[in-house]
Input
Amino acid sequence: MRLPMLRVVVISVALWSVTGVVQAESKLEAIDSLPDGISKDVAAVIEPKGYRVVNEKGPVCSVWLVKEVATKADFKPTLSVKYPLVSGELIGVLQVEAKKKFTDFRGQEIKSGIYTLRYGQQPEDGNHVGTSDLADFLLGIPAASDSDPKPISGVSSLSKKSAKTAGSTHPAIFSLLPVEKPVEKATLTHNSAKEHTMLSVTLAAKGGSKVPLRLIVIGKSGE
Output
């Protein structure tokens, strides 16, 4: 049975993994300014207030989100696609601050630096079995090569740009996971069974609605 589209859309994002992190000591810090390394056009659509995840060894990563996210008015969720986002749409900016062992959801190591985060869907081609039950993902792209905030058209183009992030032939993917409930204040929660640490925030959407996001900031696919 298909559920009707709600005014409030909830998004859960699995973003990255750091090997050997002690989750209980992770904490959240507020950031009041954007990082260097993003274009003026991208900076214009990103909210300066960001979130930094810190563990016992220091800063792990930081995230800034777009001021407003566009959603599909006629979107209806399916078993594998839960989020009413446009393929290639800019969702935010990621700063990898850990010096090593920072990975995407597939376990690909990503160097410290600045990356844009764009929405995409995992192809059903048999090469991604076990990665996630959902097709929704964010793809990281080096900010130096992604200066236009407009959506990137074409799955191939999006994948090729993202593959530069991990220096491989596969895009750097950050899994979007099932949702729970929106929050009024940014918080970190932990799922010890899956070894995931989640950042929960709420983002404004065009048209006046809200888009709560729940991001797994520590954790990767079990495959």
Notes: The chain is about 10% helix and 35% strand. Helices lie at 40-44, 155-166.
